[in-house]
TrEMBL record, chains A, B:
<dbReference type="GO" id="GO:0003700">
    <property type="term" value="F:DNA-binding transcription factor activity"/>
</dbReference>
<keyword id="KW-0238">DNA-binding</keyword>
<keyword id="KW-0804">Transcription</keyword>
<feature type="domain" description="HTH gntR-type">
    <location>
        <begin position="5"/>
        <end position="72"/>
    </location>
</feature>
<dbReference type="InterPro" id="IPR008920">
    <property type="entry name" value="TF_FadR/GntR_C"/>
</dbReference>
<dbReference type="InterPro" id="IPR036390">
    <property type="entry name" value="WH_DNA-bd_sf"/>
</dbReference>
<dbReference type="InterPro" id="IPR011711">
    <property type="entry name" value="GntR_C"/>
</dbReference>
<dbReference type="InterPro" id="IPR000524">
    <property type="entry name" value="Tscrpt_reg_HTH_GntR"/>
</dbReference>
<dbReference type="Pfam" id="PF00392">
    <property type="entry name" value="GntR"/>
</dbReference>
<dbReference type="InterPro" id="IPR036388">
    <property type="entry name" value="WH-like_DNA-bd_sf"/>
</dbReference>
<dbReference type="GO" id="GO:0003677">
    <property type="term" value="F:DNA binding"/>
</dbReference>
<protein>
    <submittedName>
        <fullName>DNA-binding transcriptional regulator, GntR family</fullName>
    </submittedName>
</protein>
<keyword id="KW-0805">Transcription regulation</keyword>
<dbReference type="Pfam" id="PF07729">
    <property type="entry name" value="FCD"/>
</dbReference>
Length: 215, 215
C-alpha cells in the first residue's frame, strides 16, 4: 500500500478496480464486512470510500439497503455520451490555443499504435492507448475543473467491459473510431476550434455508439 | 430532522447551508468535533458528509490537515462558468423538443417577477426566482445525469454571497442578466436550438461575468 495514500483512497481504488475489471457486476450489493476483512481495516474508511464512489456515480446508495454497483443501461449511456461530448468538445476547443507540434506528433504516434493494436485484436492495448490519446489534449485545456470532471465521468461510466465483449464487429467499430481520432488530429493541425468542438461532440461522442458502452 | 433523511444527509445539509449563507468562509477549517457536538451525533456520519462535500467540490480535503472550505477565486469561477455554460447549453438544446407553451408562459411570469425584485433591490428574491427560471428548462432536458451534474456544480460553486456584496453596479448587472433571460425565452419560442445553445454558452455564461461569483 502506498504509504502516502489514505485508507479511504486505498479502499476507493480497490473497489473501483473491481468494478472496472468486472469482478463486481452491475446491481451487485457491496459487502462492507467482507471488504473490511479482505483489507483488514475498520469500517470507517470503507464507509468513506463507498460514499465517495456513490457521489461520483459508481455506486447507488439505497436507503436501508446499502450500496450497489450502478448498472449503466443504454439510455444512461446515451446521457453520459451527451455530457462527455460537450465537455470534451470544450476541452479540445480550449486546447487548440495551447497544443504544440510535439503534442500533435505524439498523438500521431498513438494513432499508429492504436491501429496496430486493433489489427492484431489487442483490444485491451487499444483501450489503454486511446485513454492516453484523449488525455493528451484534455490535459492541456487549461481548466483544472474540466479535467477533473471529464476524468471522473469517464471513470464512473466506461467500464472496460467492452474489451471482453464477444462482438463480431468490434474490429470494424474500432477502425471507424480510430479514423475519427485521425480527423481530430487534422482539426488540431488546422486550428479549427469550432469544427473540432462540434466534431468531438456530434461525431466522436455520437449517441449511436452509446450501446457499445452499456452494460 | 426529517425522519427519512440519513444522518449523513442531515450533516451534509447543515454544512452546505453554512457555506452557502457565508457563515463558514473560504479556507475556514471544518471543526469535526464541534459539528458532532452541535448536532449531537457520532463522528461517522460527519466524516461521511465531509467526504461527499469534498467529492462534490464544496470542501478541500488536505491530507493530515482535515477539511477546509474551498475558496473560489476568479480563475476558478471562470473554469466553472465555461463548464456550466456548455452543460446548460446542452440542457436547453435538448429541452427545445419538450418545452410546452405552459412552461414558456411560466418563464415569462418569472421574468417579470425578477425584474420587480431587481427594481426594489430584493436581490435575495431575485436569486431564488432565477434559480426557478433556470430549473424550468433544465429539468425538462430528458437527461437525468445532466440535471444532477448541473445542480451539483451550481451548488458547489455559486454561494449566494453576491447577494450581500455591496456592489454599486449590481442593479445594472442584474438588469443585463435579466434581459438575457428574456432572449432565452425568445429563442425557446423560436425553437432555434443552435442559437439557444450558443447564446447560453457564450453570452449568458460569458466568463467576463465570473468575477461577480468569485469569493
Amino acid at each position: 500500500m502506498n504509504q502516502y495514500m489514505s485508507l479511504k483512497d486505498h479502499v476507493y481504488n480497490y473497489i473501483s478496480q473491481k468494478i472496472n475489471e468486472g469482478s463486481l457486476t452491475p446491481n451487485e450489493k457491496i459487502n462492507e464486512q467482507l471488504i473490511c476483512e479482505e483489507l483488514n481495516i475498520s469500517r470507517t474508511p470503507v464507509r468513506e470510500a463507498l460514499i465517495q464512489l456513490a457521489t461520483e456515480g459508481y455506486l447507488e446508495n439505497i436507503p436501508r439497503k446499502g450500496f450497489r454497483v450502478r448498472p449503466i443501461d443504454e439510455n444512461k449511456a446515451i446521457e453520459f455520451y451527451m455530457i462527455i461530448g460537450v465537455l470534451e468538445g470544450l476541452a479540445a476547443y480550449n486546447a487548440v490555443d495551447y497544443i504544440t507540434s510535439k503534442e500533435i506528433s505524439y498523438m500521431k504516434e498513438l494513432l499508429i499504435s492504436m491501429d496496430k493494436a486493433i489489427d492484431i485484436e489487442l483490444y485491451d492495448d487499444y483501450y489503454k492507448i486511446q485513454t492516453v490519446f484523449h488525455n493528451t489534449f484534455v490535459n492541456i485545456c487549461n481548466n483544472e475543473e474540466l479535467i477533473r470532471l471529464i476524468n471522473q465521468l469517464k471513470r464512473s461510466f466506461i467500464r472496460q467491459t467492452y474489451i471482453n465483449k464477444e462482438s463480431d464487429n468490434l474490429y470494424e467499430i474500432l477502425k471507424v473510431t480510430n479514423s475519427e481520432h485521425k480527423e481530430i488530429i487534422k482539426l488540431f493541425e488546422l486550428k479549427d476550434k469550432e469544427k473540432l468542438r462540434s466534431y468531438i461532440r456530434d461525431v466522436h461522442w455520437n449517441t449511436q455508439n452509446a450501446k457499445f458502452d452499456s452494460i
